[in-house]
Amino acid sequence: MSGHQERATKRTIRRKELREIVPLADSTIYEMEQRGQFPRRFALTPRCVVWDLAEVEAWLQARRAVPIPRACPPDVRLRKTSPLRAQDRAQTPRA
């Protein structure tokens, strides 16, 4: 090497490739970006936004390393209506 440091080539990905890597809806990704929970996109041109592939891969690795806690079941006592039972549905006449 002649005094120049080797730099890793940064690769960016567009939305189509991001969707293939991260199976989340666009709205979910946007909301997570706003909360700082997902790598931020940046604009290459006024009509083209991209994500840094290394940041997305690092985010995926971090997600794999931490188990996601299960969601709490809903409190059925707070329901406004009671769901029909399967046997009640079978007896209900259909129009």
List descriptors.
12% strand; single chain; disordered N terminus; three-stranded antiparallel β-sheet; alpha+beta; 95 residues
Account of the protein in words:
The chain is elongated and about 65 Å long. Helix content is 37%, strand content 12%. Residues 1-6 have low confidence and may be disordered. The protein is α+β, with helices and mostly antiparallel strands and 95 residues long. Strands 1-3-2 form a three-stranded antiparallel β-sheet. It has helices at residues 15-21, 26-34, 53-65, 86-91; strands at 12-13, 42-45, 48-52.
Percent helix, as a range, is: 25-40%
**What does the largest sheet look like?**
3 strands, antiparallel
Query: What does the average pLDDT come to?
Result: 84
Spatial shape: elongated
Strand content range? 5-15%
Low-pLDDT runs of 5+ residues are 1-6
Which secondary structure elements does this structure contain, and how are they paired or packed?
Blueprint: E1 12-13, H1 15-21, H2 26-34, E2 42-45, E3 48-52, H3 53-65, H4 86-91
Antiparallel strand pairs: 1-3, 2-3
